[in-house]
Design a protein that fits this description.
The structure is a homodimer.
Chain A (H helix, E strand, L loop, with lengths): L7 E5 L4 H12 L3 E8 L6 H12 L4 E8 L31 H16 L3 E3 L15 H14 L1 H4 L5 E3 L7 H10 L24 H13 L9
Parallel strand pairs in A: 1-2, 1-4, 2-3, 4-5
Helix pairs in contact in A: 1-6, 6-7
Chain lengths: ~230, ~230
């Protein structure tokens, strides 16, 4: 697709490394990007400030922050400060899993897409260097796309939603190399699950470890600010 | 399923006639019911107070109100006071359609179900006397069930989510007869799209018209309070 088509896309932007790279790819593909971030009482809310910086950096047409208050802690280390963020590798699906998070995020993104007339939704999920979250897998994305195409007025009227997951098969090193070529300033991004209020990373959580190893393997200097 | 199994269910409870009947059916089927309502800046917020009364009436184990702020009006007469609620029957999908609403509601209900360990989700959608909303159709519910069964940690670990839509094939009259037999006090319910702050109905919107016709066809006195 060339830039002159100016098709609109909704890009999920967490403020982390993966979603910033995804936004860069969507821009490169010529989409008119509308970014959406979610305030869900996450522990690492400094990622929202990061998302704002990244959105501005890439000149998105709109950056919307949606608030979700599910009226409870949600049984995850990312939303419940009574559950500690693990600082060593874990077996299986970790306690940082947030029940149905990507289902909720994509549902809201779908509504946003319908309102602005976008048929393309980008999400930076990844099935290689990831934490084993079920809602990052290709089968989840395929099922969501199928749902999206029966869920909306736009779908009934013939529009087809396409889910874009450009990072799905990339390892962290390749994601970082790809983003670097596209001009992503990774110093703006916050990956840490327990970043402090200034966006400084812990360096020991799952997300920090994947990120560090990625920069190392890519042979690119890690610009992350550690606490 | 008998009451002694005490399987937990999440029941979407809007405060309207259909969801109140659905809750009565879920209780009758022996589920330990957890009700969830959504505050999404809807015009007819008095339905939330109604939902609270109904939840109490049926003695649910928990009634959670989740807040969603999508950061915009959402392009619907139900969330944007600049768009009038139609007071005569409309062709096609009406302006009261809220983009991806049931996708968002069910996504949040799925997260709630996972947190409390419920595999059953009840929603009072109906494909007979309805307004043509795409996310009330059987194909939408089937697609959501398929999504739910790849989306969560519980699913990966072998749980199966079942969607229950007991009203799907009922007309409004049969819904009202069914609920009346199960003890639903319909005076508590608010169906109107533009009910006033006291929960009094307009009597002319789509939702009021379906409701009135339903009571009339059922031969049951309509307890609705009209403004």
């Amino acid at each position: 697709m060339s830039a002159k088509d100016v098709a609109k896309a909704v890009v999920l932007l967490s403020g982390g490394l993966d979603s910033a790279t995804t936004l860069a790819i969507a821009k490169e593909q010529g989409f008119d990007c509308h970014a959406v971030s979610f305030d869900y009482q996450q522990r690492h809310r400094s990622e929202l400030a990061a998302a704002g910086e990244i959105a501005k950096f890439f000149g998105v047409s709109e950056h919307r922050i949606m608030k979700i208050d599910s009226g409870g802690h949600g049984g995850s280390a990312l939303t419940d400060t009574d559950i500690a963020v693990p600082e060593t590798p874990q077996q299986g699906i970790p306690v940082t899993y947030v029940p149905a998070r990507n289902t909720v995020f994509l549902a809201l993104a779908l509504g946003y897409a319908e309102v602005i007339g976008a048929n393309d939704i980008f999400i930076g999920v990844n099935a290689v260097d990831y934490s084993g979250y079920p809602d990052c897998r290709p089968e989840f994305i395929a099922a969501f796309e199928a749902l999206a195409n029966v869920a909306t007025k736009a779908a009934v009227q013939g529009a087809r939603v396409k889910m874009h997951t450009p990072l799905m098969e990339m390892d962290k090193s390749r994601i970082i190399k790809t983003g670097s070529k596209l001009g992503v300033d990774y110093s703006m991004t916050v990956s840490c699950y327990q970043a402090d209020s200034k966006g400084r990373a812990c360096g020991v959580c799952d997300s920090c470890r994947f990120r560090m190893a990625g920069f190392s393997a890519a042979g690119i200097v890690d610009p992350t600010r550690y606490a």
